[in-house]
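COMPLEX REQUEST
Ligand: calcium ion
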Amino acid sequence: MHRLLERQLKKMALDAGKPPSGEVWKHFLQKVDEAYYQADQDRYTLERSLTISSEEMQSLYQQLKTSSEARMSAIATAFPDMLFFQDEEGRFLDVLTSRPEELYVPREEIIGSRMEDIFDEDMARRFHKLLSDTLSSGSLQQIEYQMPNGSGQLRLYEARMVPMDYREKGKRTLLTVVRDVTDARQDETRARLVAKAVNAAREGVVILDENRRIISANPAVEGICQVALLDVLGSEMSALCSAGGPLLEEDAWLTLDTVGRWHGEVQLYRPDGSQASLWLSVDRVQPEVHAPLHYVILLNDISELHASRMELERLATHDPLTGLPNRVLFQDRLEQALLRVQRSGLSGALFFMDLDRFKIINDSLGHQVGDQLLQAVTSRLHAHIRQGDTLARMGGDEFTLIVEDLKRPEEVVHLLEKLLKAFRQPFTVGQHELRTTASIGVSLFPRDGATAEELIKHADTAMYSAKDGGRDQYRFFTEKLNLSAYSYFDTEQGLHQALARQEFYLVYQPQYELATGELVGVEALLRWNRPGQGLVSPARFIPMAEMTGLIAPLGAWVREAVCQQIAAWRKEGAVPPRVAINLSSGELVKPGLNASVASQLATYRIPAELLEFEITESVIIERGDVAYQNLFGLTEMGIELAIDDFGTGHSSLVNLKRFPLASLKIDRSFVRDILVDVNDEAIVRATIVLAHSFGMKTVAEGVENSQQLEFLREAGCDRVQGYACGKPMSPRGISRLLAAPGSGCAQ
Ligand code: C2E
Ligand code: CA
Ligand code: CA
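STATUS: Structure written out below.
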């Protein structure tokens, strides 16, 4: 096969069958090996490692001489290049290649031909020059040229020519190693493009050697980490990070060295003190056991992404209005707290807080004011809780608070008192001074529940009990409450059907003029006779009706019933007194109240003077436009207005003066204590004097005995209402009173 070599070997009387030996041979094979390995890894480096020096080529030749045929063909197969043997005139002596099909001219034709027989004129001239340069210099020369390959494809070749110390027929010989470098050049171009891209990339690229030292990094790294590349080359990864540790934790390295790949988020601390979140993708690159090991790291600055993710997370877990944890996060925190107490043996408490008059404020002053109030409430609550406590907003006007690490559950009582007190101070929202109290239900854990749900349910139950008990107070959960909670919901359910089932009726309580003892009015009081359960107190179901919105139809029913009753009394021939109707704020903020009242008066042909409406102070303070309009509209119709339960709210008389109020009802609690508490006595006296100075009449509520009557008479109170003068009674009872005047409260 290798005619030339065979001949040469024979000539030199060397044994072609002798096994190859020597360092050079080994070195050459190693080189081929490496080249193949490198080609596999990166074709770009193929060329570099295959650059054989002229000494090596000489040695190669020497070795070829001493090789067996088998060995030579092995070399030919292993060697990626074509080997051309020529004499000093350029005549081809032999061609050695593993891929003869790629030769432009068949091998047989080449052997024995001259260069000008094979190449065109221009190319032949170039090769002749290469040949003469090689001979004259005596060292390796090279050129690059383009030529079609065996299948007609134009390829780029590199020829390296070296003179040999061996003569053929007296002529000097040369060896040319020709390599197709088309792909290598392409790869080189590609590699250059890749390098450019890496340089221009926004992602940081860092390459570490096996000692985890930085051997290369792209300019983006400078921007991301705020370091100079020159300063970090040769350093460990931690050089990229000003503080806070090694950037890549040991377990990341462990993963890398076992799985070969790691990615994750790390925190970067920059020299200027700023912080960034980086997403690192690290690859451990070692294609073979003995190949050099590298780590290739991609750094992505995901701070913005991170920030928006955090924001998303915050939005999902926090209430946008107050910034407090929402129901979702609260539930999670409560579960955590439960786990903690199980471990610590301490106790915790869950407060369920509901603002007492929020709905009214929201309805009458508008949602914007309502929102601001909630914010004000939030910051006030914040001022009273500890850092570890979780304050959350469950929605609407419901807040929850988790208090942990209580040695004794009673410790929370102090906090509860503090919170209630804090609520009682007015909140300034815009030009409004708003007053709202809170009802707080408390469940203790682990005592009151093993799960978050149970605890919430029980705190909620306790909260309703606090509301039931008159608001502005706290209640602890007890099993008994659980029962009454059941009855609460049961009552609420029953209330919904009560109107349709005609379970309501009205009773009337007389009011007397103190000076004359004359019956001057009656107050209509609602009664609910619940089948199978008897009478349900309005103190219980009216707040429920207000909360559920049922108050509107219920109020309308009361007005209708009162009108019917007045008409009925008149039909009997009696002269009915003025009837006072209690008006809830929920009714007052509804537009259309006036129209409804006007049409009822018209339907039953009742003069407006026969009606009076009782409203509470809160309605006046939390005035909304609609409430205003309704109130003025009513007085314009000729209906009188009275302030109910005066003294229990927070309004001052001066405040009330701006309204066309005819009378003021002094709350039962003052009347009850006038003979016991000098303060109350003074308050009642002052109220009467002030009311008179504003042109209002005073009505004392809940008068139960003659001493109170005597005091009130002496203090100048105008009218009285109470058990001492007459309990709430049926319409027939009132008819009897009307028929027998003078039997009232004039002792
Ligand atoms: P209120 O307007 O202050 O009504 C007076 C309450 O005091 C009535 O209770 C009455 O029975 C009670 N009372 C009268 N004299 C005395 C007394 O000498 N001693 C004592 N201890 N109590 C006396 P009632 O009927 O249980 O009503 C409770 C509350 O329910 C009322 O308080 C009122 O706010 C509300 N309410 C009753 N009927 C209606 C209604 O038709 N509409 C609205 N919106 N609320 C109503
Ligand atoms: Ca009343
Ligand atoms: Ca009252």
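REMARKS: Residues 494-739 form a domain with the TIM Barrel fold (CATH 3.20.20.450). The CA atoms of residues 10 and 635 lie 137 Å apart.
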